[in-house]
Design brief:
By secondary structure, this protein is α/β, with parallel strands linked by helices. The chain is built from 10 helices and 14 strands. It has a 5-stranded mixed beta sheet, with helices on both faces. A 5-stranded mixed beta sheet has the order 10-9-11-7-12, covered by helices on one side. The chain has a two-stranded antiparallel sheet with strand order 1-2.
Length: 293
């Protein structure tokens, strides 16, 4: 099918903004030219791509299918342009990373600081999302690589995965509200207490639910949040027993203790994941080498 790339480009901007006027501004063409391009594309494809109304623009189911393919293609084109502009030097260009809140705060910041000090002209873009969502962002070509918890159900076999470090997840509680310091609990006993953990969209939640299922137990958390820091704060005031990665617990923490378990939970890993079948910029390779060292 002979369709001009410019038509797909116009479609991408309308679909990503859901606005003909905003797309015209970003493309520096008239709104009527945008509208005409979409009509031509719809005619060539034999499909309606947008539902138009006076108040808003929406993608049709066919438009959504097309956008899922066009978006990663546009991201790859941008990536290629950036790499050409970078001209194989670290005197410019862009570094695009995705990682979760927790990994950004407790692991990534010192590396970003060092890299920025060594290569101040490289533009660093950090996308913040859950580890599972980060995997989808990587597959769409929106970032060069991700730093994620592993195992991660969002990672496909096509991705290259390199371990950085191991960590353990622990249950922490306030000793005044939960006098369990001298006890060793089973998972079955633990489920009788109010457990606080990350929500179901996280790799941490997947991991703990799997551990309980292996012991033929159903886990029903008292509280599910999107922030490990907030879980720790709530554990400090005795609202429940929080399940968090060990590297999140502040050094010298006095208001919390780590519960002892009879069934030791396996360690997890922080990994760097990238798609090596796609071009990787020199800035990205340099940063990944820094993480591995």
């Amino acid at each position: 099918m002979d369709i001009n790339y410019e038509l797909y480009k116009v479609f991408y901007y309308v679909a990503s903004t859901l606005s003909f006027s905003e797309a015209s501004k970003q493309l520096f063409i008239s709104q009527s030219a945008v509208s005409q391009s979409i009509k031509v594309l719809e005619k060539k494809l034999g499909q309606s791509l947008f539902i138009r109304s006076t108040k808003k623009v929406q993608l049709t189911p066919e438009g959504e299918i097309l956008f899922k393919h066009i978006e990663p293609a546009m991201n790859l084109i941008r990536k290629g342009e950036n790499q050409l502009l970078e001209a194989n030097t670290l005197g410019g260009g862009q570094l695009r990373i995705a990682a979760s809140d927790t990994i950004c705060r407790y692991f990534l910041v010192p590396y970003l600081n060092r890299f920025h000090t060594d290569y101040p002209n490289v533009h660093i873009k950090v996308t913040n999302s859950t580890s599972i969502e980060c995997a989808h962002i990587l597959e769409n070509g929106q970032v060069d690589f991700i730093i994620t918890n592993y195992p991660n159900s969002g990672l496909s076999n096509a991705l290259s995965i390199c371990p950085i470090r191991e960590f353990r997840d622990v249950f922490v509680a306030n000793p005044e509200h939960f006098p369990l310091k001298d006890r060793s609990l089973t998972l079955k006993e633990l489920k009788n207490y109010p457990i606080m953990m990350l929500d179901r969209k996280s790799t941490t939640s997947e991991f703990l639910h799997n551990m309980f299922q292996r012991s033929h137990l159903d886990l029903v958390p008292e509280i599910e949040l999107s922030s490990n820091d907030l879980l720790i704060d709530l554990a400090r005031i005795g609202l429940g027993i929080a399940f968090v990665p060990d590297f999140c617990i502040p050094e010298g923490e006095k208001d919390l203790f780590v519960l002892k378990l009879e069934e030791e939970l396996p360690a997890r890993k922080l990994v760097v994941a990238c798609n090596e079948s796609l071009p990787i910029s020199q800035a990205a390779r340099q940063f990944m080498d820094l993480l591995k060292s």
